[in-house]
User: What shape does this take?
Amino acid sequence: MILINLKSRNIFLYHFFEVNMYNSIIILKTFIIGYSDHEKKDYFIFFLSILLFLITNTNIFSQTLEDSTETDKSLIEMLNSKIENDPKYEKTASKYIQSVLDAPASVSVITSDDIVRYGYKTLADALNSVRGFYIRNDRNYYYVGARGIELPASYNSLILMLLDGHIINDNIYWAPYIGNDFSLNMNVIDRIEIIRGPGAVLYGTSAVTAVINIITKNGNTLDGLEISGGTGSYHHNKAHISYGNTIYDILDFKMSAQYGNIKGNDLYFKEYDTDSTNHGWAVGLDGEEYYGIYSTLQYKGLKLSGFYSSSYKGIPTGAWEMLFNKLATSLDVRSFLELKYETSISKDLNFMSRVYYDNYKYRGIFPYESVQYENDDGNWLGGEYEVIWDISSDNRITFGG
Assistant: This one.
């Protein structure tokens, strides 16, 4: 609709011009309010402009019957079509595919196209672009805040992170991983779904300020071998290999592995600018070495997944009253093995179950007057089942444990 307001002397002339197209038929509607004789010239100019507009823009209305039929689909019909590879849809908020408008939460979706378009190299890069999220780095770990909440020394334990629905948070610090310590190449990610607010009803511990679900591509989507590598600032070198395919038309297989190392930068801290502490310079202590592998094998509803990630990072800041400009390191290793089964018992009843084994290992070296070591190990077994039952067209029940 075009609203044109012409003013002449003390008289207002309003023209409402509406163009509707249905099956290639143009319907023009014009309403005039406040017409007077001395406005005839303006009225003539108005319709002459509309005529020229139609003549010079006939291509706008030259769509075929098929095109107009597609555009005539109602918004509700479009939203109800379940398209997984579309930022308008998600499946983390309620554990089934739905429109983000129907989700009972504030949802953001980062697609694989977004990752390529903006060149995100880590999960931290991607999350830093999300409304209401921010990133900080203490030269040991990356931390993410949501809606202004990121408690110091909390290790992000208020945010729950999932990889294809599997919880990544460890069982010692309840920490997720968003930097190179989550060593999964971004090229194999199909979408990242971010659910703001509490999600403990569906996910339990740590789902306080947000739930982040990283959904990877299947083997058929990867469709072949990809090898890539690169180098960057501070002697940062990185290599990646991935392969995915459908085997014998029944087995979906994918594998992704990457390795990287970075020398880091020499850092200056004015708080340590004394003769005994190298005048505030931490030299050669900001390096990092990381690698990881993720693989899945799926036959119909049965899926086997394995993940391993390791990050060895220097700590150059002299934190926790350690001796400055002395070697301090942390090693984080996170892995899991999962077997998952999902099936539709009927068109109204879906069942999912999974069993898994998880491991987390931390090793720290801290230079005090005598070097101190920290060794933490976490091992845990778990299982989950979930039933989704559509009892009617407007009512759905989800339960599990």
Observations:
- The two ends are 53 Å apart (CA to CA).
- The longest strand covers residues 371-392.
- The helical segments are 40-56, 65-71, 75-80, 112-118, 123-127, 200-203, 219-222.
